[in-house]
Amino acid sequence: SAQEILDRATTAANAASSVTVKGGITQGSETVNLDMQLGKDAADGTIEVKGVQVEIRAVGGKAYFKLSGEGFAKIVGQNDNPEVAKAISSLLGDKWLQVPQGSDSGGLGGLDNFAQKDSLIKGILDPSGDVSVKGTGDVNGTPVVFLESTDGSGTLAIQTVGEPYPVQIKGDGKDGSGQIDFTDWNAPVDVTAPTDVLDRSEEHTSELQSR
Fold this sequence. Notes:
Layout: H1 2-15, E1 18-27, E2 30-39, E3 42-49, E4 52-59, E5 62-66, H2 69-75, H3 82-92, E6 96-100, H4 117-124, E7 131-139, E8 142-149, E9 154-159, E10 166-173, E11 176-183, E12 197-199, H5 202-210
Parallel strand pairs: 6-12
Antiparallel strand pairs: 1-2, 1-11, 2-3, 3-4, 4-5, 5-6, 7-8, 8-9, 9-10, 10-11
Helix pairs in contact: 2-3
């Protein structure tokens, strides 16, 4: 059944040691573009949200972010407060910011979730409703079976050779659109923690808030 195929694909994806996830998702007026290499305990890549590009690394249970000061102010919603935006720009702009994975990311709205392979896979492969088999074909030369959400919100391509890994997902519903490709399953992920890192602490957060 379609649900069994989806369950097997999810199991295979979770068991894989790594994957590269690349593409874009649009929901309403918000578009998120990502190009991430995700391992079990490490990640490296970029995402673009609200028109701001964010560099992300994750290793050793810690997530690291870097973006411009103006970009940081835009993401945390402080553009309407020039003093706070200036403080953020001078303190955090173009510096690596370290946060514990699973935290609120210092106002970055949980962007560290994009650096966590299994949670990202779960979010992407969780359909809004039931699924049905749409047919077979190929994506970039890989034989696949297509699963379609019964509400018409998207189509998932799962390879039919080797492990049943997801190959591509397309959103074509009114609530979301875009395309994400999955490649390089089980490729090595070599990530080094950045140097000159600014550690996000309670004292640092209080300093920003006082400004």
